[in-house]
Design a protein that fits this description.
Pfam families: YjdM (PF03831), Zn_Ribbon_YjdM (PF08274). By secondary structure, the protein is mainly beta. It is about 5% helix and about 30% strand. The protein contains 1 helix and 11 strands. The strands form 4 sheets. It has a 3-stranded antiparallel sheet with strand order 1-2-3, with no helix packed on it. A 3-stranded antiparallel sheet has the order 7-6-11, with no helix packed on it. Strands 8-9-10 form a 3-stranded antiparallel sheet, with no helix packed on it. Strand 1 and strand 2 form a beta hairpin.
């Protein structure tokens, strides 16, 4: 049994409880596997944190805003600064592209975390 259970990563509820190998939040119902060393330091279970252009830590499901205009191959117009991208997914991408997402009007693509900020 873990003595100091971490708060819920989704809603920050501190009344989490242990159920078998999972930690469960009674308020939002989120379940996750606690990481022994990563839980106290705030790092995700994957081991590396992804930060946006201004230093905010990003998580799966976040909404971000593009901070500078981006060119897109095969498109006459690029992605404009200020475009909102919902429900991102963090990946170990190629060439620094660590966000997998769908941009409205462009479709599925990968973005660099250095060109977005958390909304």
């Amino acid at each position: 049994m873990i003595e100091n259970l971490p708060p819920c990563p989704k809603c920050s509820c501190e009344y989490t409880y242990e159920m078998n190998a999972l930690v469960v939040c009674p308020e939002c119902g989120h379940e996750w596997v606690p990481a022994e060393a990563g839980a106290e330091s705030g790092e995700p279970a994957g081991g590396h944190m992804v930060k946006d252009a201004v230093g905010n830590v990003l998580q799966d499901g976040d909404t971000v805003v593009v901070v500078k205009a981006l060119k897109v191959k095969g498109s006459p117009s690029g992605i404009k600064a200020g475009t909102k991208v919902r429900n991102i997914r963090l990946v170990d991408g190629v060439d620094g592209h660590d966000i997998d997402c769908k941009v409205e009007g462009f479709g599925a693509m990968q973005l660099k975390s250095s060109v977005v900020k958390k909304a």
